[in-house]
Amino acid sequence: MQRRSLIKAFTLSASIAAMGLSWSIQAAETIKVGVLHSLSGTMAISETSLKDMALMTIDEINAKGGVLGKQLEAVVVDPASNWPLFAERGRQLLTQDKVAVTFGCWTSVSRKSVLPVYEELNGLLFYPVQYEGEEMSPNVFYTGAAPNQQAIPAVEYLLSEDGGAAKRFFLLGTDYVYPRTTNKILRAFLNSKGIADKDIEEVYTPFGHSDYQTIVANIKKFSAGGKTAVVSTVNGDSNVPFYKELANQGLEATEVPVVAFSVGEEELRGIDTKPLVGHLAAWNYFQSVENPVNEKFVADWKAYAKAKKLPNADTVVTNDPMEATYVGIHMWAQAVEKAGTTDVDKVREAMAGQEFAAPSGFTLKMDEKNHHLHKPVMIGEIQDDGQFSVVWETDGPIRAQPWSPYIEGNDKKADTPVKSN
Amino acid sequence: MPTALTRILLSLLLLLPLAAQAGEADDFVAANASKQAKLLQDWAATPSTERMPLLQALQQGRVGSDADKRAFIEQDGTWQAADGTAEANGTPRKLRLNNRLRGLVTFAVASHQLLDHDAAVRLAAAKQLQRNTPPALLPLLESRLSMEADENVRDAITLALANLQLEASDPAVRLAAVERLGKTGDPLSRTRLQSLLDGEESDATVRAAAEQSLAQVKNKLLIGELLGQAFSGLSLGSILLLAALGLAITFGLLGVINMAHGEMLMLGAYTTYVVQLSFQRLAPEYLTLYPLAALPIAFLVTACIGMALERTVIRHLYGRPLETLLATWGISLILIQLVRVTFGAQNVEVANPAWLSGGMQVLPNLVLPYNRIVIIGFALFVVVLTWLLLNKTRLGLNVRAVTQNRNMAACCGVPTGRVDMMAFGLGSGIAGLGGVALSQIGNVGPDLGQSYIIDSFLVVVLGGVGQLAGSVLAAFGLGVVNKFLEPQIGAVLGKILILALIILFIQKRPQGLFALKGRVID
């Protein structure tokens, strides 16, 4: 009885698998690739360019003959900056469109929203944005920076002689999970460097906050107590009024430098950057990095924007998440070639140790274990043309620590991906 | 082999005079960052007029170095050797300074400007040096003070010296320094006095004087802080008012729940952007005046769009508030998407012209930004204009007649349909003016209107529907209360608390701050 039911179950599952297989063989003239970025709503300002970058990279791969001899076909959906809608669209990509892989998400809350879907249906998601860590899913590859690849080196720079030897820190962020977790890590890190809690001020603003008068006045007051640096995790377009207020109230970078983790070339397009010269940003890539790979990357992107008549095509810029998207797609294509299939489990195995010569000028490696990229860290100062000049960088790519040692209890967590539920 | 050797020898010989000539600029260019910092500190302590061009070039980012690590200064697009007259080996690359060096350069420039002929320049330099005076400057400041003739500059230098004299061994000098610092209202003085008191000050009179000075400074700082908060409140209020004033007409007077009001603000801001672009292309010499030109254009554009909307959609929905709400909301989505398709999802850059950038230093801890001052003035101007329009013109009379009793007005021969259209156009046009102002302080993007629509409704409802004065009072009241709450409880909680307070207030007084007396519209 027991054996018979086992056999039954086995044949049933085998036939289902065979059906699935035959279906995918029939339909597989192209390989479908999902692109899950907000094209409307608050996050459209940042995510639209990632969608375009994904399409450009797919075109580039197709022009070279595609993957496994098949052309890639992009399936673009718009989750409209609506976090639950991310989960819905993700499910649609996996169950209806049957995509082999998805590139998408920006905010941590959108990633958290799709995560259960991808784990349930065993999908594959590439996430291209710097984030707070504290996550390692077998169904996600993280091509953006973990805190030790962005936040901590940036603060170390501010503590150093060249960075101004700051003694007091003003941690300013938008009120959601990424800034709060990052600041928690930074506070523990600063404490370990001998900065007392009275010299650290943590302030949060709502999403879309636009009146920074009080906050800038507070920064001024705080900075009278000693050399101060501001660490900004302000997200989205709130940065424009913040920097405008800084400039108008006469707070200069030489006195109080602001280092931002979410301000890149794309965000600076909406700002008159002359008053911001000297403020800092920490990333793993800047458009101004000089090397042949990057020259080609930037030129390709400009040509693509012109050819596709993207809005404001003559002023397009590249930035860190765009580079991470580009690297992610190429690495996935390499892994598929290596595995010889788009099957998620096989591709996941093939991803380990995958290398790619990235526009940042370094050969980046996907870690064998923790699903995060090894990345170099760069600190750039804003120039008057809206670009950054690199004032400090690491010697080479560093390994990600998604479980930050500065959060209690993380030392017990395994350095391998586990499903979150 | 011998030829190679002679070549090397020859080139060494050639290099010799160059090396001997290498001056300060070349040293600087060849040094690494920490050595450059050291050089700048030394220069600041021993200023000389010959060094000034180099420092100014450094400050303006015009110094470069060629392949041989020699310094060149860019002058009107051409590179000239900083020391000597050598030709550049290849095009010089611009020297990039980091923040620390840039700060030291500013500082060195200030110490060099103490030698300037112009008393005003010396005064500004002395003030700059007050901010952060390194001990190495003590002899320089003392010698300059003894030579200085101008009274104001003397005062400024004495104050800069006072910062250093807190460390002096003579208690009398310390006492004088402490008393001098007490007269400033500078936040830095507070820190210095505080650290003196926290440290090992043994002299009792100095200690007592320091405590007194600290109290004085704290008092002055408190005044500056309160004034700053009041100004921020007024500024926030003026922005709320500009955002809400158009709505006070379309919703307040006409009773149309206009969810597309925010998009009128957004279109006004985009008009500013387009005007700025056309000034850049067609008349770059008048670029700084573009916000003024944008005002009438934005008014016309949004007023026309408003009137078209009224004619085509809203007119058919009068008396059906729910449908109006949905229809206008739909219109707002269409407008947003239209802008997104035309201009892109990214925010566009609307730069403040020079006369709207920077701020006025009123007190040491109080800077009033020009753009905010101008916007407060502009908000009041728009209020007066609207009031005049509504109360002193025939159109205004008609509008008021129609809002108070539509049928009676129609019977008296008022063309109610046209009045509705004109009034809606006026409301939209004023929203457009608000958009021009908002473009000067915040983001210009397709979603601009969304972030203001709720605040606008709050202001109008709180002020009392149908009353201009109510909206004005509500806007400034909300602004000031918000800004006095924010430092205490933070921006997030502050916003929640304000909302809760408004809900309580409306519960208690549904008609808002001001209610229309007598017969109220339906």
From TrEMBL, chain A:
GO terms for biological process: amino acid transport. Coiled coil: none annotated. InterPro entries: ABC_urea-bd_UrtA, Leu_Ile_Val-bd, Peripla_BP_I. Keywords: Signal. Residues 1-27 form the signal peptide. NCBIfam families: urea_ABC_UrtA. This is Urea ABC transporter substrate-binding protein. The gene is urtA.
UniProtKB/TrEMBL annotation, chain B:
CDD domains: TM_PBP1_LivH_like (cd06582). Residues 1-22 form the signal peptide. It is found in: Cell inner membrane. Its main location: membrane. It is a multi-pass membrane protein. One of its GO terms (molecular function) is transmembrane transporter activity. It comes from the Bacteria. GO terms for cellular component: plasma membrane. Pfam families: BPD_transp_2 (PF02653), HEAT_2 (PF13646). One of its GO terms (biological process) is amino acid transport. The keyword NADP does not apply. Keywords: Amino-acid transport, Cell membrane, Membrane, Signal, Transmembrane, Transmembrane helix, Transport. The chain crosses the membrane at residues 236-257, 264-283, 289-309, 321-339, 370-390, 457-481, 487-506. Belongs to the binding-protein-dependent transport system permease family. LivHM subfamily. This is Urea ABC transporter permease subunit UrtB. The lineage of its organism: Bacteria, Pseudomonadati, Pseudomonadota, Gammaproteobacteria, Pseudomonadales.
